[in-house]
Design a protein that fits this description.
By secondary structure, the protein is an alpha+beta fold. 26% of the residues lie in helices and 31% in strands. It is globular, with a radius of gyration of 13 Å.
Length: 95
């Protein structure tokens, strides 16, 4: 399920990172994006990817979270990510 999701969202140019944390209620997945604050299209594309991943693994317990760093201005968004989550995928630094 996680691999399926990462394979979809990693192709979206505004997705920067995917973190995951197994929990007692299933898998928590945090997707970090950099896009126009409060724009519908980028978040809609991430939601579509979530739906595709869920449909590919019926019965899987998953809790998705989406964080757009540009909506927080200069604030560090590390507080929004669980400390125990591992990096499932991260975009290579752009040159």
């Amino acid at each position: 399920m996680l691999q399926e999701y990462v394979s979809i969202v990693s192709r979206l140019p505004f997705v920067e990172e995917v973190r995951a944390e197994p929990g007692y209620e299933g898998l928590g997945i945090w997707t970090v994006i950099d896009s126009e604050p409060f724009a519908d299209e980028p978040s809609g594309q991430v939601y579509d990817a979530e739906l595709k991943a869920v449909l590919s693994s019926p019965g899987a317990l998953v809790d998705y979270r989406l964080i757009n760093r540009l909506e927080y201005g200069d604030q560090n968004t590390a507080w929004a990510l669980p400390q125990g989550a591992f990096v499932a995928w991260r975009r290579a630094p752009r040159s």
